[in-house]
Specification:
Layout: H1 13-25, E1 32-40, E2 43-47, H2 50-56, H3 60-73, E3 75-79, H4 85-95, H5 98-101, E4 106-109, H6 115-118, H7 131-149, E5 157-163, H8 164-167, H9 182-188, H10 201-206, E6 217-223, H11 231-249, E7 253-256
Parallel strand pairs: 1-3, 3-4, 4-5, 5-6, 6-7
Antiparallel strand pairs: 1-2
Helix pairs in contact: 4-7
Organism: Decorospora gaudefroyi
InterPro entries: AN11006-like (IPR038883)
Protein name: F-box domain-containing protein
């Protein structure tokens, strides 16, 4: 009987995995697959997993091996752009299927931000009188992200990219929807001292991470400018934010990925 195995299955498993890795990420040093969602006519289409399709159709053995490697070893970076973050996490959960949901171990959310969605020019939220209500709605939807993340049974790590100014301004001292754009919001409401943080939209939303299993680790990396404050003040603000977050989500561990 002739050998009908695809040539790739004749290679050692370690080498096959390197091929899968490069096909999926285009870089052996990267462990991240960017995922985005586009909405059209009420339907959400998931983008980022297209390279997998060509691999899994070759052979049943290869199908299972590729999916197992992809979903258990790599990090899925969920980019929401102008969409509500909850929709992106929800559609990723729904569209990858039950078996793959049970394999996902690492998720990253590069822009855990209300401002980024609110001030996106395509949304034109600031043109409407209900802008304040819309900002609060986005905040509630961001909190809802964790109910979806909690549904991934094998999840071990979630990383969040946090805008410094957005994460260190008090909910009681600012109304972002009254500013014309995100830059203006950051300039007008820049951080004035650690004691000004009496509640914060981002910190409040991240507090919902207590919905996750205790074994999940949270990683924070800081983004954006300090907007005129000293490096020492910025470091104090970051530490204060992290201490508040650790208290809110204990016993879940919180790590700072950039040493800030």
């Amino acid at each position: 009987m002739p050998n009908t195995l695809p040539s790739i299955l004749k290679l050692p498993r370690e080498l096959r995995q390197q091929i899968y890795h490069y096909t999926l990420t285009q870089d052996l040093q990267s462990h991240t697959i960017p995922i985005s969602v586009a909405q059209r006519h009420g339907y959400y289409k998931l983008h980022g997993l297209e390279p997998i399709q060509g691999l899994i159709l070759v052979n049943h053995t290869l199908h299972d091996e590729v999916l197992s490697y992809c979903f258990s070893r790599l990090t899925f970076a969920l980019h929401n752009e102008r969409e509500s973050l909850r929709f992106v996490v929800r559609e990723f959960y729904r569209q990858i299927g039950a078996q793959n949901r049970g394999r996902v171990t690492r998720i990253a959310i590069p822009d855990f931000s209300i401002d980024a969605v609110f001030f996106d020019a395509a949304n034109m939220v600031s043109l409407f009188a209900s802008s304040g209500a819309r900002y609060c709605q986005l905040h509630q939807e961001m909190q809802g992200v964790f109910l979806w993340l909690a549904r991934f049974p094998a999840l071990l790590k979630v990383d969040f990219g946090i805008d410094f100014v957005e994460a260190t301004r008090s909910t009681g001292a600012c109304r972002p929807w009254q500013c014309g754009n995100r830059v203006e919001a950051n300039v007008r409401m820049r951080f004035q001292g650690v004691d000004v943080i009496h509640g914060n939209y981002i910190l409040d939303a991240l507090g919902e991470a207590r919905e996750l299993a205790p074994s999940v680790r949270i990683g924070i990396w800081w983004k954006g400018e300090r907007w005129g404050i000293s490096e020492l003040e910025a470091s104090q603000a970051k530490l204060f934010f992290l201490e508040c977050l650790r208290t809110a989500v204990a016993p879940i561990r919180v790590e700072c990925k950039d040493g800030g």
